[in-house]
Amino acid sequence: MASGTALLYDEEMTRYKLLWVDPACKIEVPERLTVSWEALHNAGLSGRCIPLPVRQATEEEILLAHSQEYLEAVKKTPDMSLEELMTFTQQYGDVYFHPNIYHCAKLAVGASLQLVDAVMTGKVRNGLALVRPPGHHSQRSEASGFCVFNNVAIAALYAKKHFKIQRVLIVDWDIHHGQGLQYCFEEDPQVLYFSWHRYEHQRFWPNLRESDFDSVGKGMGAGFNINLPWNKARLMAPYFRGLLEHCDQKCLTWLLASLQVGMDSSDYLSVFFHVLLPVAYEFNPELILVSAGFDSAVGDPEGHMCATPEIFGHLTHLLMSLAGGRLCAVLEGGYNLTSLAQSVCQTVQTLLGDPPSRISGLSSPCESALESIQSVRAAHQQYWVCFKNADVSLWPDPGTKCSRLEGDTQAEEALKEGEMREIVWPEPPSRLAPPIRTGVTLPAGLEDDVLTSCFRVTGIPLTPNQVAKELWHPAVPELKDEKVLQSLGDILSLLKEIEKKEVRNGLAVVPNVSLAATFGVQHALTSLTDRVLLVFLGNEAPVELQEDGRVMLIQLCSTEPVETKSKFYVPICLKKSSSDVAGFLHAVLSLLLPLAYGYDPGMILAVMADCSLVGAVAWAQLIGLLQSFAQGHTLALIQGAEKEIIRVTAASLLGEPASTLGPLGPPLSENVKAVEKERQRLQTHWGLLQTTGEDHP
Ligand code: Q9C
Ligand code: ZN
Questions:
Q1: Higher pLDDT, 423 or 325
Q2: pLDDT in tens, 179-198
Q3: What CATH fold (topology level) applies to the domain 438-688?
Q4: Phi, psi angle pair for 156, to nearest 5°
Q5: What's phi and psi for 330, nearest 5 deg?
Q6: What residues contact 132, with CB distance under 8 A and at least 6 apart?
Q7: Mutate which of 146, 149, 151, 174 to test ligand 1's pocket (most atoms within 8 Å of Cβ)?
Q8: At the topology level of CATH, where does 5-422 sit?
């Protein structure tokens, strides 16, 4: 299994800049690369990566995505005078040329290809290419939006050509629409392009009709182009103008600080849960390329969004469960140097395998985001079975648009300067990177190469009285069993190691999983955290839940559970779930992950009571995804000792990418219905479960 994170960077790519006055281009500066590189160095992250040399792309490689005429034209730029450069630049939109940009553009493509090579040959698991100029706006015969050659497009075509792969997923989380990527792949069913972008009903650059949700791809590529437009109007024009007129500077500053001007982490995660991830799992990519623009982070002068840099750690982590972990991130935009550097660090630290930070205070996506989610799901329901079973009868016709909100450009201009000075956000907390990651207590005789990389923890001897005290229950008959008592000592020992930060997560094979889970929850609540998420696969719910919210129980079972009104108890009854992998995945993506993000647990107990409920690969995927939460503090408890389950659980806890789920068929419709019923019951309590706007419940 490939391991290691590649980092590609060459100082040469800082050696070009804007040589004349152009307000549209002044934000694209060489410091974008130097601050990112220095931040990685200062955080001790670049030292943990595998440095790979950057090379120039060959002409043949550039011609994979560009025309000969365009290449010949760009080739002449190193010899142009300042005046000639300015004239050459003028034929394109929002881009500039410099005598050294051709050289840098060849390095940017070459770095992306070196990264693809290293990942596809298994030299590394994943990586990031820190490059300038960016690529996703550049087209076959056109430079655009600071981009000269389309780094990611060429990388995808190169991967298809040299490694004979048939499914590449491109995730473009830059705040602009990568129209160059869309044009390159819109007829290609082997490359799935996903982009979210600030759109504002075509008022935002590049102002293209084809950036809307109804551009789904063409011909054979229909369904393989997914656009998620962000349409929130930032200023409610008449209302805001009135306020401005009666406002002094101080009042204005306060007003701006309290205004939510863009999408936040809740909006981004909702799109991942309800649009991108379901399609991505169904597509089953062999490689993921990320057009990693960080102008979608807070503080950016282009994006004006509100998502904090920590979110990129999570977006990265959510994608790392796909394609066997083969992920290549290539820098695109990002113009607030502080926000950019922090976001780059968050991304790289997740690629390296450290658990993402906890994200607190997530709420619901905003109305406008919900409307876009709903629209794109409706537009794509004929192409993807994951959208097919949901009730779409109430969805708006994808052809109908909501009324265009009038922006007030004058007010916007007046505000820009002051606004950018005001945006502040807390520095991301330093993340946990314990030296040893997975503690195990296992029965003897279970030797395996995966398990040897775990840290063997010795159980703490317990008396029935000590256990009874912890459980607040004087007489538990099972405690007479020596093995049961010993397994509780194992759990106690693992939890203490986690508390000491000696290990991040743990695995125990236990004879009585219900008692073990109850004991684990109680102990975690006493000494580790005030919120435990218990993910329980089995028919007998183990703990008696209090309504105080200190425990959330998500139970996957095969028998009909009792009706509940609790927002902390989520029973999901799945029929034939071990064969209906698609149904299981639907439950995980549309219910479990949004709930867990909303709940923000400090500890996770993942309990496998009944191995017949779900296959080893699906379970391993779940364990991998759960590492997004609680700083990776997961305790996995398994009843019985099915060797394969133990092995894949340990591998996932160690951070190895789970095997892919393979091509997914349609989920059983009764399972989709069961999930939908719970989702609807809970969506008023847990906003990340929502998929539809208020007008279309
Ligand atoms: N207000 C990338 O992020 N428009 N390109 C600038 C200035 C062009 C962005 C308008 C933005 C291009 C890779
Ligand atoms: Zn951008």
A1: 325
A2: 999 999 999 999 999 999 99
A3: Arginase; Chain A (3.40.800)
A4: -65, -45
A5: -125, 125
A6: 13, 14, 16, 28, 30, 32, 33, 104, 108, 331
A7: 146
A8: Arginase; Chain A (3.40.800)
